[in-house]
């Protein structure tokens, strides 16, 4: 069966456990079809791994969920309510945040200034920034999340890649996020730094306060921290299984099959 003929997994019935659903999403850029009827769901407190080759449509899907792109067709449901995501601020108001690979941190600013970047606290009745309050809140919050930095006064540019990623994730969670999208959170990290981020994701998972979608090319890490995994191929979800029902070998074979002429995904 060719890729164009692949039958996508039947979407589950909508339930109260779904914090997010995207149904039959279509997105075109001129003559290029980036998403071709993409259907995906995320349950409350769940960690979903999203895999797929470069150009499969993962980044486009994430940008639609975060309000950066508008779909040409389809339906988006957040906490049981149909929404039209028209901007990033609107998505954030609904509790949707994304941490991209570039992290959007300012290297020359301190940890606590980055934690409140764009949302600075002000002294009562004054335009002046409340540095002391921001510093104390940042310290308490990072300690609560077990994010280790030498000091919240240190410049972010002096920290390791793992510490920077942890701060970016903590900042997103601190903003009362409900749905957190992580775009390659472990890219270019060594084993020790990757473990720090995986441990942070596990702690967030245990709290069940945040639902997460993780885009990653490292399938072993997907299997380690995710509850379920979806494969996006040429703009469509063609594989959806719980991690206990699949294996690292099967995920690898899924992607390898793309280079064999688009064989039908197993299972």
Secondary structure blueprint with pairings:
Elements: E1 18-29, E2 32-43, E3 47-51, H1 58-65, E4 73-78, E5 81-83, H2 88-93, E6 96-99, H3 111-115, H4 131-144, H5 161-174, E7 179-183, H6 191-207, E8 211-215, H7 219-225, E9 228-233, E10 236-242, H8 248-256
Parallel strand pairs: 3-8, 3-9, 6-7, 7-8
Antiparallel strand pairs: 1-2, 1-4, 4-5, 9-10
Structure report:
With 267 residues, the chain is of the alpha/beta class. The chain has two domains: 1-95 and 178-184 and 210-267, 3-Layer(aba) Sandwich (Rossmann fold); 102-176, no CATH class. The chain is 30% helix and 24% strand. The protein has eight helices and ten strands. It has helices spanning 58-65, 88-93, 111-115, 131-144, 161-174, 191-207, 219-225, 248-256; strands spanning 18-29, 32-43, 47-51, 73-78, 81-83, 96-99, 179-183, 211-215, 228-233, 236-242. The strands form two sheets. Strands 6-7-8-3-9-10 form a six-stranded mixed sheet, sandwiched between helices. β7 (179-183), α6 (191-207) and β8 (211-215) form a beta-alpha-beta unit. α5 (161-174) packs parallel to α6 (191-207). The protein is globular, with a radius of gyration of 19 Å. The model is unreliable at 1-5 (pLDDT under 50).
Structure keywords:
Rossmann fold; four-stranded antiparallel sheet; six-stranded mixed sheet; 24% strand; alpha/beta; 8 helices; 267 residues; 30% helix
